[in-house]
Automatic annotation (TrEMBL):
The lineage of its organism: Bacteria, Pseudomonadati, Pseudomonadota, Betaproteobacteria, Burkholderiales. SMART domains: CheW. Its main location: cytoplasm. The keyword Nuclease does not apply. CDD domains: CheW. PANTHER family: CHEMOTAXIS PROTEIN CHEW (PTHR22617:SF45), CHEMOTAXIS SENSOR HISTIDINE KINASE-RELATED (PTHR22617). The keyword Cytoplasm applies. Keywords: Cytoplasm. InterPro entries: CheW, CheW-like_dom_sf, CheW-lke_dom. It holds the Pfam family CheW. This is Chemotaxis protein CheW. It is found in: Cytoplasm. Residues 11-152 form the CheW-like domain. SUPFAM superfamilies: CheW-like.
């Protein structure tokens, strides 16, 4: 419980974004930039959530659709759809989200620990907590842990370090 108390007492900034009706938050320090969505170049035999790659100023960036990764309804891309470009470890990866909302300062009583769910039923290993601001509830993600998962196939060096 001490680890949770010290973690939540420290204020952090989170970029909030939507996937369907749900709102999520990621550590703003992992965000490099936010870009409008453009169709990436597909990669043969890639899983559906890996939309492809884009060339970002000479860097080839894999693009992951978080809606598809989380098993939500098929993504519909609109003018609000964006790619959040992330710096994770020594790599750059893009995450497609339905829209970004704002940057929020959260800490102390605003962050609760993630729910304890049956290990085999729901994988919550990349959820760091639940943030609340007024009437809004955000699912706070450890984006590095999510993108570094073996089933993502993006970062061999992150999986080896874990």
């Amino acid at each position: 419980m001490q680890a949770i108390a010290s973690h939540t007492a420290q204020k952090r900034e989170y970029l909030s974004f939507k996937l369907g009706p749900e709102e999520y938050g990621i550590d703003i320090l992992k965000v490099q930039e936010i870009r409008s969505y453009e169709a990436p170049t597909r990669i043969a035999n890639a899983p559906a959530f890996l939309k492809g790659v884009i060339d970002l100023r000479g860097v080839i960036v894999p693009i992951v659709d978080l809606r598809l990764k989380f098993g939500l309804a098929q993504a519909e891309y609109s003018a609000l759809t964006v790619v959040v470009v992330l710096n994770i470890g020594q790599r750059v990866v893009g995450a497609v989200v339905d829209s970004v909302s704002d940057v929020l300062d959260l800490g102390g009583e605003a962050i609760r620990p993630p729910p304890q769910l049956s290990a085999g039923l729901v994988d919550t290993g990349f959820i760091t907590g639940i943030g609340t601001v007024n009437e809004r509830m955000l699912i706070l993600l450890d984006i590095e842990a999510l993108m570094g998962r073996a089933d993502m196939g993006l970062f061999d060096e992150l999986r080896q370090a874990a």
